[in-house]
Every structure is written in structure tokens, then in C-alpha cells.
Design a protein that fits this description.
With about 200 residues, the protein is an all-alpha fold. About 70% of the residues lie in helices and about 0% in strands. The chain has a two-stranded antiparallel sheet with strand order 1-2. A hairpin with a 2-residue loop joins strand 1 and strand 2. Helix 2 runs antiparallel to helix 4 and helix 2 packs antiparallel against helix 6.
Length: about 200
């Protein structure tokens, strides 16, 4: 009995830290990143038009509002960076690399909370300040948030395998701090609206 128990413990210790849930997380993050990259390119384009977001549509109102920028940078670029870092870090959870896996676990926990807090902030802004919802933005937030929830549901188990005690309170606090910096930049230094183009019809 003792030998069988030790064998089960040995096999458990050597089992991968990730599982089928990891593929779901990566797929969700990749999908969210694709949508976010598309929005970022549209924001950087001079026309700024997104198919399905005609003039005066809810989508157009959101993407052309000051809330769609942070210090002149499209917030979609910030989201793309977050989702990209989240996605890449999932590949560093390997049982044979204790220190690297521990760092990745801490980073992934922070990314998860940052994703959830950022989603709550930007959806709240759309509901309260803009009064319109961008379906592309909300879809990206929804996909990334689902990925974050799935990861957090597995985080404690991974921490136990690595003999690491996760501090969710610190993760939430750090995520709130990061989003607070973004919110402060949007409130204190909003993007100035572009001056209307004036055409002199009197000139040939």
C-alpha cells in the first residue's frame, strides 16, 4: 500500500501543471487579441472607420470618444499588450522549471485580475459616461474575462503543486492600481477632439 501511494504521489508531482483548460484560455485570449488588434488598427487609421460601425452608431460613439484613448494612445493597444502578455505567460507553466513557473503563476494571476478590473471599468464607462456599447469591445472583454475566470479557478491548484501560496488580495490591489492609473489619465488628460475640417467652397 505504501509503495502504491508513493507511486501515485510521484506521478502526481510529475504531471503537467496545465491541462485542457489551458487550451481554452489560450483560444479565448487569442480571439480577444485578434479583435483588439483590429480595433487598434482602426483607431490608428486616418479614417478610423470599422465595418459595422457606421456614423453615429453606438460602436462609432465609443471608438471616437475620449474614453477610447489614454494619453493619446488607443486603449485597444493597451488591451492588446495585456492579452498578449497573458497568452505568452501560459506557456511558462512547466513543472520542471520551479522558479520560472512560480513567476509566471504570479504574473498570470495579476493579468487575470487586471483583465477583469479593466473590463469592468471600460464596460462601466460605456454604460455611464458614453451611453452606448461597442459590440467589438464588449466581445473582446467578455472573451478575455472568461479566460481570466478559467485561469483563476485553476490557480490555487497550480500554487499547491508549486508549493506557493497565492495572495489574491495583493493581485486584486495591483490590478486596481493599474486600472486606476489608466482611469486617471483618461479623466485628467482626455484626448482633445479633432478640429472639424473646413472647406472653402469659394475656391476652385
Amino acid at each position: 500500500m505504501g509503495k502504491a501511494k508513493r507511486e501515485r504521489e510521484r506521478q502526481s508531482a510529475q504531471a503537467p501543471l496545465t491541462g485542457t483548460w489551458t487550451h481554452a484560455v489560450r483560444m479565448l485570449l487569442f480571439s480577444a487579441a485578434i479583435i483588439t488588434a483590429y480595433l487598434a488598427l482602426a483607431s490608428l487609421d486616418l479614417s478610423g472607420q470599422v465595418p459595422g460601425c457606421g456614423p453615429e452608431s453606438d460602436c462609432d460613439k465609443v471608438l471616437n470618444s475620449p474614453w477610447a484613448y489614454w494619453l493619446g494612445i488607443p486603449v485597444s493597444l493597451l488591451g492588446l499588450g495585456l492579452y498578449g502578455a497573458f497568452f505568452i505567460s501560459t506557456f511558462s507553466l512547466k513543472i520542471g522549471q520551479q522558479q520560472k513557473a512560480t513567476r509566471s503563476l504570479n504574473s498570470l494571476t495579476l493579468f487575470s485580475f487586471a483583465t477583469l478590473v479593466a473590463a469592468a471599468w471600460f464596460v462601466g464607462v460605456q454604460a455611464v459616461s458614453i451611453g452606448a456599447f461597442c459590440p467589438y469591445c464588449c466581445t473582446a472583454h467578455g472573451l478575455a474575462s472568461l479566460a481570466a475566470v478559467i485561469f483563476l479557478s485553476q490557480a490555487n491548484d497550480i500554487g499547491s503543486r508549486l508549493a506557493v501560496r497565492l495572495n489574491f488580495g495583493a493581485g486584486i490591489g495591483s490590478a486596481l492600481g493599474l486600472v486606476a492609473v489608466i482611469a486617471a489619465g483618461q479623466i485628467i488628460l482626455p484626448k482633445e477632439p479633432e478640429a472639424p475640417l473646413i472647406v472653402d467652397l469659394g475656391q476652385a
